[in-house]
Structure formats: structure tokens, C-alpha cells
Specification:
heterodimer, A: 409 residues, alpha+beta, seven-stranded mixed beta sheet, 12 strands, B: 152 residues, mainly alpha, 78% helix, globular
Chain lengths: 409, 152
């Protein structure tokens, strides 16, 4: 679902507008001055709305039409929701005039509109042709109104933004994405005066509203495992928030759900690590037998990584022991399996699951985006992990080469 | 030759997807991740025949990030989703291993060479990413080209 404001060639949409307002000169009265919004699903136009600003921070929906075949799918409600969010900062009350009959009245009431006043015989006096709906002549126009709550709960907004930022950062997002998401959420919910400072391990945010109320928060975000699915979901949520399709409470609930998305099952990760090692080994030049060994080594390696992660062992230990484990198993299979194999192919393939790809790529993205501080921290993280792996592999190699003499490398 | 191509395509495809699984990439992106990894690797292989490994990594990562960015706009998701698994085939694991091996064998000259090669390849990847990332976002959207056509 995508909203777009239409500023040019509004007349092109006349056919649609005539569905709900059957007289062209009546439409002309508001078409030029009004704002027109369209809701697209994919490339298809689903709902069209025209809204005009009145005096005293009030506005009126002049036309709201959902195209044929798209009724009953919630597009009308989505549009009303969008308009309410969009005009919240400019207006206090939103009005809509409609005939006193049928589905449209019910939809508006369901969206929080309530009765305001009636213009008796409006349709009879202003339209040349009588309007009939289901055989009944429409006479009176009822006005419905809905107050647009401009109360901004600074604390709630900042908490939501900070929470979204925290989840992004710990799941492996880049600094600028965290920053952008926090800003977007704050702007959308009308906290305009906001400053953020995001580091690889923490978020600093301070926001103010109208010069009287101010709020600062600092959040420490410890290192955690990468979960790109969570990044994608939060990104999607932030898009929907800026499109005005979702209110503060719904957004908070949605964020709660995203944070508790279950990670992939252990056996899936272990298998993936094995397949990754095996497949990479094969195209990096290992023989078929070596790749099969790499598959098993990769699986066993990840059992260790998961075990160490559950017991919160330090990165140094995980990677050095990982390196030792890989090398030992490669040497073992070299000795035990009576097929001509070289150990280097197996080792090179099986260290890949330990390689800090996310830290490496993110550090480059951060540095190229100007976030030198976080970029440097992540780059050092990535480099050190390489050093740990090399240390582990080297340690085990030196022990084995002393034991059994020359290895067939 | 054909066997070599098939083996490389299948393995880099599978391997990239395996790493996508490890980073919890949502399931709907698996195919794209696999294709990006494969293309990056093939470009690397072709380029490596005529230029140094570092330059080949540059071209490989350039292709990976460019395709990632195009898909990002299409699928409306963070670019990291495709980039991180796609880069994996290019990572210089072999050089790091040989560096460790040569160090153990007290062959410091070769160790230095391998270590330096790893750094050069890593720098090639970095340059590739930076180049592709610095292209403005709008270029990758369909609207940009459509509007350009209308103006022209």
C-alpha cells in the first residue's frame, strides 16, 4: 500500500470522483483548492480522496472514493487513517459531509467520526438531478466530525523511537539506518525537535516539545547476534509509520512482536554452516572428498559456536578454539580417511562460518557514510576476529606439524 | 569447462544461501541472495584471468553491491540483506589461512606476502562497496529513468 499526493492534472480523475459526487460543477468548486491523495496497491489506484482546509484549523473531506472491485478491503479506512495522521499537525477537527444513508455512513462512524450537524435538503437544492440510492431519494447532507488529537506524548514517542533504534542496532543494522529510523518515527508523531547520536554500542537521544518539555535518554546496546530478518521487519515498520498508516500504540505493539520473532532453529544454522563450508570449499578449489569433510567440519564447528554463544563465552575464546577445532578435524580426516586429500582446502572452507562478514560490511558502510567512530570500532572487531581465527589455526598446525612431521599441504 | 561452470554456479548459489540462512535473512530473499553471490563470484573468476586478485575482488564486490541496490529498491528492504551474503564468496579466507600456515612454518617472507594479499583483496572489496554505495539512491529507482525519459 502506498500513498501519493496528486498535484497535477487532477481533472484526469474526474470519472472516479463522479461516482460519489455526481455533478461536475460541484466537484470543480473544491478540486483546485483541495489536496488530492491516492492510495495505490502495486500499480493499481484503489482509493482517491480530496480534502480542503477550512478556517480555524479545520478541514473537510470533500470526496472519498474507492474504485470498483477494491471495496471491502479496508482501503477506505486506511485512507481515512492516513488523512487523520497527515492533517494532525495542521488541524484540530476533520469534517466529512455525506448522505444520510448506507455504507459510507457506517464506515465513517467506524473510523471514529461522530454526528455534527445536518444540512436539510442540501442535495435537493444544489444538484440539478435528484440522487437516488437503492430507490431512495437523497435529501439531507449530514456532517460528521472527528477531533484530531494533537496531544503529543513526548515520552511515548521517544521510547518507541529509541526501542526501534535499539532493536535495529543490536540486530546488525548500519548506523545511518538507526539514525534515520529514529528521526522518521519522531517526525511522524510530531516530535520535531530531536537530536540523536548513534554509536556502534549505544544510542543517545534528546527531544523537546514546544520549548517546555524535554527528554534525554541514553541506551547501551550490547553486542548481540545478527538477525537480518529483524532489520528488515523494523525497516518495513518504519516505512509504514512514515506513510501514516499506523498509530503510536499499534507501532509499539508491532515492535514488541518483531523483537520476539523466533530466531532460526539450531539445526538449521548447523546445517547451513555445513552446506556453506562444503559448497564454498568446492568452488574455492577443494576436491569433492575434501568438500564433504568440510561439510562435516562446518557442522561440528557451529555446534561449538552455538554452545559457546549460549554460555556467553568471549569472542576471543570462540574464534581461537574454533580455529583449533577446524584444524584438528581437518588433520584427523587427513590421517584417518584413506583418500588423497590436502588439509588446506578443508580448513579454508570451514573457517568461513567464523568470518565476521556483517561487522566487515557494516564497518565499510559506516565509514563511507561518515560514521568514522563506529566504523573503526567495527573494523577492528572484524580484523581481530580474523587474527583470532588465524591464531587458532596456527596453534593447531604447529602442534600437529611437530607431531607428525610434514603435512601434505 | 561446462562442468566447471556448472559446479561453480551451483556451489556459489548454495553457499551464499547457506550464509543467508546463518544471518537470518527472511526466506523470500534466498533466491536473490543466491543469484547475487553467484554473479559476484563469476565476475571475480572472469576478471581474475586478466587482472590481479585484488582488482578482481573490486569488480566482484562492485557487481554484488550494484545488483543488491537495484533489488533493494524493487523489494523495499535494507541493502544489507543481499550484500552481506553476496560478498562472502570474495572474502580472502585462503590468504588468511596461508598466512597462518607460513607463520607456523617460520616462513615469514611468504607469510607477509599472504597477509598483504589478504589486505589487498579486502581493500579491493572495500573500494567496490564504497564506489557502488556512493551512487545516489534515486538512480536505482524506476522513477528516475522514467522521469528522465519524459524530460529528454
Amino acid at each position: 500500500m502506498r500513498f501519493q499526493q496528486i498535484t497535477e492534472n487532477k481533472k484526469e480523475y474526474l470519472d472516479l470522483l463522479l461516482l460519489t459526487d455526481p455533478q461536475e460543477d460541484m466537484i470543480d468548486r473544491y478540486l483546485d483548492t483541495g489536496d488530492m491523495f491516492a492510495l495505490y496497491e502495486g500499480k493499481e489506484l484503489c482509493t482517491l480522496a480530496v480534502i480542503t482546509l477550512l478556517k480555524n484549523r479545520e478541514c473537510e473531506i470533500r470526496n472519498l472514493v474507492t474504485t470498483y472491485g477494491h471495496g471491502g478491503k479496508g482501503y477506505t479506512r486506511a485512507m481515512i487513517h492516513f488523512l487523520s495522521e497527515y492533517y494532525r499537525s495542521k488541524c484540530d477537527v476533520i469534517y466529512v459531509g455525506t448522505w444520510n444513508y448506507g455504507e459510507s455512513l457506517r464506515v465513517y462512524k467506524r473510523c471514529g467520526f461522530e454526528y455534527s450537524h445536518t444540512l436539510p435538503d442540501y442535495y435537493v437544492n444544489n444538484y440539478r438531478e435528484p440522487i437516488f440510492l437503492d430507490g431512495q431519494q437523497m435529501r439531507d447532507m449530514v456532517y460528521l466530525k472527528k477531533p484530531l488529537d494533537v496531544e503529543v506524548d513526548l515520552k511515548k514517542v521517544v521510547n518507541l523511537a529509541l526501542n526501534a533504534g535499539r532493536i535495529l542496532l543490536k540486530s546488525g543494522a548500519e548506523i545511518f539506518r538507526v539514525d534515520e529510523t529514529i528521526q522518521r518515527i519522531c517526525q511522524r508523531y510530531h516530535v520535531e525537535d530531536v537530536d540523536t547520536f548513534v554509536l556502534s554500542h549505544g544510542i543517545f537521544i534528546s527531544a523537546a516539545k514546544g520549548g517546555e518539555e524535554a527528554l534525554s535518554k541514553i541506551k547501551h546496546v550490547p553486542l548481540s547476534s545478527t538477525n537480518l530478518e529483524v532489520v528488515a521487519e523494523v525497516n518495513d515498520l518504519s516505512r509504514r509509520i512514515s506513510a501514516g498508516m499506523i498509530n503510536l500504540e499499534e507501532a509499539a505493539e508491532e515492535l514488541e512482536r518483531i523483537e520476539h520473532i523466533p530466531p532460526k532453529k539450531d539445526w538449521q544454522l548447523i546445517l547451513a554452516s555445513g552446506v556453506g563450508s562444503g559448497a564454498f570449499g568446492f568452488f574455492l578449489g577443494a576436491s569433492a572428498a575434501e568438500s564433504v569433510c568440510a561439510f562435516f567440519i562446518g557442522c561440528i564447528l557451529y555446534v561449538w559456536v552455538l554452545f559457546a554463544g549460549k554460555h556467553k563465552l568471549s569472542k576471543i575464546i570462540i574464534n581461537i578454539v574454533g580455529g583449533i577445532l577446524i584444524t584438528s578435524m581437518a588433520v584427523l580426516s587427513y590421517i584417518l580417511i584413506p583418500v588423497a586429500m590436502k588439509i588446506d582446502g578443508m580448513i579454508i572452507a570451514s573457517i568461513l562460518p567464523l568470518v565476521p562478514g556483517v561487522a566487515f560490511v557494516n564497518s565499510i558502510r559506516d565509514i563511507s557514510g561518515g560514521d568514522y567512530l563506529s566504523g573503526t570500532v567495527r573494523m577492528i572487531d572484524a580484523l581481530l576476529v580474523f587474527v583470532y581465527i588465524a591464531t587458532g589455526v596456527g596453534l593447531a598446525l604447529s602442534v600437529f606439524s611437530n607431531w607428525i612431521g610434514g603435512l601434505g599441504v | 569447462m561446462i562442468r566447471w561452470i556448472i559446479a561453480n554456479v551451483v556451489c556459489s548459489y548454495l553457499g551464499t544461501i547457506a550464509f543467508a540462512v546463518m544471518f537470518h535473512v527472511p526466506r523470500r530473499f534466498y533466491t536473490s541472495c543466491g543469484i547475487i553471490g553467484t554473479l559476484g563470484w563469476l565476475v571475480y573468476c572472469v576478471a581474475e584471468k586478466s587482472v590481479s586478485p585484488a582488482a578482481a575482488s573490486f569488480f566482484g564486490s562492485l557487481v554484488v553491491v550494484l545488483i543488491s541496490r537495484i533489488l533493494t529498491v524493487r523489494m523495499k528492504c535494507p541493502v544489507t540483506m543481499f550484500m552481506i551474503p553476496g560478498i562472502f564468496p570474495l572474502i580472502p579466507g585462503a590468504s588468511v589461512y596461508y598466512m597462518a600456515y607460513d607463520l607456523v612454518m617460520s616462513d615469514t617472507a611468504h607469510a607477509g606476502q599472504s597477509g598483504f594479499l589478504a589486505l589487498k583483496i579486502a581493500f579491493g572489496i572495500v573500494l567496490g562497496i564504497v564506489t557502488a554505495v556512493s551512487i545516489p539512491r534515486e538512480v536505482f529507482g524506476g522513477d528516475y529513468w522514467r522521469n528522465k525519459k519524459q524530460k529528454g
